[in-house]
Request: fold
Amino acid sequence: MAKKLWHEHPSETLRVTEGFRLADVDPDATPGYSHGHSRGEKDLHERRELLGDLQERLYAASRVGDDTDAVLLVLQAMDSAGKGGIVRHVVGGVDPQGVELAAFKAPTDEERTHDFLWRVEKRLPQRGFIGVFDRSHYEDVLIGRVRSLASDEEVERRYGAIREFEQRVAASGIRLVKVMLHISRDEQKSRLMERLERPDKYWKYNPGDVDERMLWDDYMDAYQTVFDRTSTPDAPWYVVPANHKWYARLAVQELLIAALEGIDPQWPGADFDVAAEKKRLAAS
Amino acid sequence: MAKKLWHEHPSETLRVTEGFRLADVDPDATPGYSHGHSRGEKDLHERRELLGDLQERLYAASRVGDDTDAVLLVLQAMDSAGKGGIVRHVVGGVDPQGVELAAFKAPTDEERTHDFLWRVEKRLPQRGFIGVFDRSHYEDVLIGRVRSLASDEEVERRYGAIREFEQRVAASGIRLVKVMLHISRDEQKSRLMERLERPDKYWKYNPGDVDERMLWDDYMDAYQTVFDRTSTPDAPWYVVPANHKWYARLAVQELLIAALEGIDPQWPGADFDVAAEKKRLAAS
Reply:
């Protein structure tokens, strides 16, 4: 089925590999997908069933068997790039009982007294679950670097700490899918402007968003360094062009499907005597 | 809209009030709703938008304003009555970012060293959220009583403790919607049997389910006492006939909608100067 939808699979075309340059990515593009908006929304809707089925198998396998697999989707992006839409329209398509969502805001006073990975470790998904990080430990080398919230040495240390952390996470059975939603500066401007034009969107607007926007180039540099330093075979980054919301959602859905198909979870066998239980139930 | 769907609203017809008798409830009935299965599924689908819109307003109001409102859906039922389906098909229709789901299993060793409400308190929804308890503190007066996991005196104490706890919860701004999904013994048998007949359902079957089933009447007595002792104006119980899954889902969806409409959350105003921000953004 994926073959018909995608002429090149997002897990190949969007993956950050050696020599990747963020500046070369066109946020308007729809790599690997030849159809347009309306077909894209239809495909998104139709592939929910497959994603939901895979998620249920993953969950089932972890409840009965010894499988320790899980998936962790890490979402990073500039403001208004569509993280919320991914959670709502992609993650929202699977059973909430199998999802663990963690939104990382500015760290609390308590969190600040610990290493930057302390609060992240606590929110790793249990086996059988799809975890979603809405922002993550990468903030500590993005805003952390751009705003000099930490010293250069500390930021430098963090890249290595992240690599080791993610290697351990991957070894524990968690498939990491790290996604940066990539919009253009112009697209961000028009999305933020919309929030200022609609009273039902005011609550989504934060004057601080414009402050960060003014540092756009610094953020892009910080992202480039993140990709250079932390895209590894076990914990790859995917840069998803996101000016077209429908494309970004479809692509992230496909990355999740691929991660789950990589696990290939199976319905677990009965750990009880089926015939005996049928008899006992019939008599009850 | 609700008027067309329901000739009597579930928040009235299904509510446990003085003199309620569980034994008088027909699990096959569809009180207040005159249509059948296919129309019921269509209505469920169509009313998702309203529920989703209300949820978003609730969330928005809590982010900017001083609103401390939240909703807590408590789900209790015999095995296979459809709690999971409610989470998947009703709660799954709203943005995962606004939902906090807590599934209460048998208490851990650590939890056992605390009062029975300790673990429950920790999972109360934040303001602006819809919390869902898949099982709850009521297990401590249901299986706790039927299986004599606690002394009679302790169980007796718990009813009062629950009333006081829920009164405080309600006063803090959390609307409680306590739902018992009510299936018949026969319906449970056929649902459990289905799990034994389909290898993709084995993982949902637990031999312990039949053990509990054998104590059906004791459980019904324990539920009756729960209703007698803990259905209060601030924390009412609703008994939802659940032999028809579509009806139970539609009814619970409607109870959530009613709870949110009772709050009537409004889009918060801007806490910044809109004109000034437009100018700043335009220049950026």
Summary: The longest strand of chain A covers residues 174-182. Chain A has a mean pLDDT of 96.
